[in-house]
What we know:
By secondary structure, this protein is of the alpha+beta class. Helices cover about 50% and strands about 20% of the residues.
Amino acid sequence: MAQTGQDRLRAVLDAAISVTSELTIDAVLQRVVEAAAELTNARYAALGVIDRSGTGLESFVTTGFDPETIAAIGDPPHGRGILGVLIRDAVPLRLPELGADPRSVGFPPNHPPMNTFLGVPVLLRGVAYGNLYLTEKVGGGEFTEEDQEIVQLLAAQAAVAIENARLYASTTRWMNQLESLAEVGNALATEIELPRLLELVVTRLGGLIDARLVFIAMPQPAGELAIETIAGEGAERYVGRPLDPMRSKSARVLERRRSERVDSLIDDPEVDQATARQMGARAGLWVPLVVRDRAIGVLVAQDKQPSDPRFTDEDVRIAEAFAERAAVAIDLSKRVASDALRRVVSGQELERQRLARELHDETGQALTSILLGLRAVDDAADKDESRRAILSVRELVVETLHDVRRLAVELRPKVLDDFGLVAALERLAETYNEQTALAIHLEATLGQTRLTAEVETALYRIVQEALTNVIKHAHAQTVSVVLTKKGESVAVIVEDDGRGFDQAQGSGEGLGLIGMEERIALLDGRVAVESSESRGTTLSVEVPIR
């Protein structure tokens, strides 16, 4: 039974309500083409979304085609021929015979035949979002003026729905981006290792702006730029790549200290075209990393995905917000690394001074005594005197060898590398028990577990330093050292019965506690000290097992 005018109007209203109820762009576009085909009895319907340049189509949604036909046709149209006429003029167009129009450019191979045609622009406040295309009215007739009016009404509703969906998508995207920026900001604030920090920056920014490649270029000692880290398609082969400072866009951005976006790299004279071709880049975004009015590097993104490689103003804003946080984090990481290096060098120099004193005062004097003893052997008048001189020299050699071995153990005990932390601590406790009046009790429950070299070294040095402190400052009689595994971490407790210090008066800097805390902090561990002048000192260290 034929539809009455009231039935068609009700159908249009139902379709409009259905269209405007969708919130995602893809769902809106698909619902529009299905509703238009249904209301006009068209066999095929399509909606082309106009790209940002206003000269072509960025997406093309259809109904009436089966998957096999779509696959056989290949790439969707890009806005030429009759479709291009609607993009340029944005006015309704009805044709009784599509192929007879001189502006038609024909169909690609495997395309189904199409004769009758109705095209209507999707407009809102004079802005064209796209065009709605209908072909092949069922029954062979032409599209009527009434069909055109109905489709125009639907197109107007569709324009509102598309704008709402875009606003919803934009709002959702901004919320996700703000959450990501906050998350990344927290991560940047806690990460101090420069390589991992740079990797975090490029990886997360690439996800935020859908870039094919993101990299950071930083000045090198010789003055040139080089790619420090990169994330994305085939990224590993570009790490460390130098950028010609005379022909590099990155160098120019670094000099000007302002963000730049290039929609077509081939048209920009500042771009190193050879490098751009090798990296397969078509569009780019550059943001300088500036901290305290000093440019420390450039953040570069190439080719927005998936289809249009050009970045948007929104992408620029996101990259700038990201770069601002990243620059501060990178600068802080460098300063922390520099400060840590100064502390390491200072510590090494102090240790060298101590070893130099011991070699001079003890080993040097012992060797001098050995030389004098050898002279006494040479000057001996009889066998008995010679034997006594030889025995004296032998004792000096044994003592000197003992001192040299002690210094070697203090530098780096071989047993720590060969047998692990427990064996090294057992040897350390034996050495102190032999050399001092201190009674050291070691309890180790690690079993056969071997820790990483850096953890074993750190814990060994902590115990060594703690025992040295007890001997020098505590005047204790006994010390207990407990080494145990606690879940996913290992703990060391060193407790003495000597004279502690008043924690209210000071933090024990003279005991090397700051150095201990810094060493353990590098392993994400923690140090705790409890001490009083009457109850001795307890040092607790806990380090996660990596």
